[in-house]
Amino acid sequence: METKYIFVTGGVVSSLGKGIISSSLANLLKARGYRVTIQKFDPYINIDPGTLNPYEHGECYVTVDGHEADLDLGHYERFTDISTTRANNVTTGRIYQSVIDKERRGDYLGKTVQIVPHITDEIKRNVKALGNTGKFDFVITEIGGTVGDIESLPFIESVRQLRWELGKNCVCIHLTYVPFIAAAKELKTKPTQHSVKQLQEVGIQPDILVLRTEHHIPQDMRKKIALFCNVSPDAVIQSIDVPSIYKVPLTMHEQHLDELVLRKAGVTPEGEPHMAPWLHFLEKMDAAQEVVTIGLVGKYVELQDAYKSINEALFQAATYNDRKLKLKFIHSEKLNQGNVDEMLSPMDGVIIAPGFGQRGIEGKFVALQWCREHDVPTFGICLGMQCMVIEYARNVLGLPEANSTEMDPHTPDNVIDLMEEQKSVTDKGGTMRLGAYECRLDPNSKVAKAYGKTTVKERHRHRFEFNDEYRERFEAAGMNCVGLNPETGLVEVVEVPEKRWFIGTQYHPEYSSTVLHPNPLFLDFIKAAIAYGEEKKH
Ligand code: GLN
Hints:
By secondary structure, this protein is an alpha/beta fold. The chain has 18 helices and 23 strands.
């Protein structure tokens, strides 16, 4: 089968969930046995989101090949179990960088380099790059931003050209918003009509409209939209708010989105998608009554997207443990010796979040000391693991000034220090230790038992590391280094075996947790939290 290209654009407002719709479609096509990938094109000029503050763009996701990526790639992986790479996320910055490099090399010698055709050609080349590998039947491309934005124009123009070139092998889905005016008790279709008109003005006729809505959109209203927007009535689909994003593949399938896409791409739909494992997860999710309460100590608690992958990994792990997840965000800047008891006592387990810089760090130490002394299941991730080490050094090893050189370059006890290969690094973008690395686990550790194996591969994003010179002292005092990189000897996992569950990972296990393959460490952490919660009750 020739590769089919599906484009997903958005109109009216941002944050409609193009990523979830793209992921749901990919989920359904995969469940029908097709080979699928999803990629995102972001119109901003940063080369990648690695240099963006979470306030700007939420969590930075990391692919196995070490690309700092948009958080939508996390959704793609969680919904499809398909690994993404650097090729799955391209920004305007990357496109321009590549065109300018070619210009300097002389590739366009004699020619004026312009947005059309040079930038659009580069976009098209990138759109087709994954398709050209021959590994995929469907390449779903999500175009970031909203139609009508100045930034996204070159992308939209490229979609127009591709549609022309690809003919039947191309399907355009446009996602819009149908607002409900409470005072008039009415749903309004005008913004959708305008948005489609805007697309038509730049030469794109969408094949399918997906309407985000908080209320059911009646059939006659869909017919009206179909009439005004030149789409067939059955290709006007509603995406109504559902209690969990993981139900969206079902609501899309109920309205035949997968069949529609196949038919529009010239493929005859056969049979039904194999949804049994996904449905099994949803059944568990709906059946879960009892609650597991987890506290997440971090400094971006007011942002729901800052710890996206951790939220989802916890949710998946809770669901497989037949529990509803109650996640409490605890602001590390507000946590102190005076309120820690009140803040953390209700928790069955505590996560110490990743992060950068000094802000909120002292609150993390307060939380860690309290959790350690009260023997609460505690999971430190990346900076969280580093804080675990520092707190242990200060309060157990008796090194009161122990620190990371990230926070205090002159600390006398640099238990966390800059990695050797980082010392000469000056550029900020894409220069951390990034991507998946192998880690060997001590077979007697809780971590190895949780994974059920002694070699794992998880993803990293950091510059600092555990200082090996202190290793013996830590181990003598009860904190063991139970996960090591086999090539470099870097300490990737620490564990205090005499505690219920006191584990820190330099890597980010949350990035590899998907709906069908939840991360074993999160599963085990939630299991320990449940057991502790039960114990607390009695
Ligand atoms: N700031 C720490 C480092 O660079 C941890 C980074 C993180 O938590 N992702 O090593």
